[in-house]
Amino acid sequence: xxxxxxxTVFAACVLAGLAxxxxxxxxxxxxDYLSEEEADKIRDADTPAARIQLYxxxxxxxxxxxxxxxxxxxxxxxxxxxxxxxxxxxIGCLDDGADQITTAREKQADIREALKLLRTxxxxxxxxxxxxxxxxxxxxxxxxxxxxxxxxxxxxLADAAEAEKEMPPPPVRRKP
Length: 176
Fold this sequence. Notes:
176 residues
């Protein structure tokens, strides 16, 4: 009888632990295009501006990897899959960075510097993506994803430009 009670208590504890783990995962989902380390950095960032900067740097990393794969002297066996995966990860990072603009508006956070970075890097990203759209090697294998990336980049740039217009100017400090 005592073993039955112990087994029941143990099973209840295991089930409660699994339920808590599942609930925790639902609260902080891990994006499949971010590494665990990157996801931790995003969670640890305390402001929308810091998160925007991180997402832009992660998007930049994905595009650099895409560029490397495109020019790789000995292509991988699953080259099309790798290229499309990198472009999808780029899109995810840039979209999530742009989503932080809305969060910043709600919190009335100052994201001017992050918006400048997003606009500057976003234009660089767009130029590179459009270059590949014009004459990228093996374009047919990633054309649709590339077009999505171009559209997503344009949307992020438009969101950043709109946010800059709506943001009040920084306070002017007067000299005594």
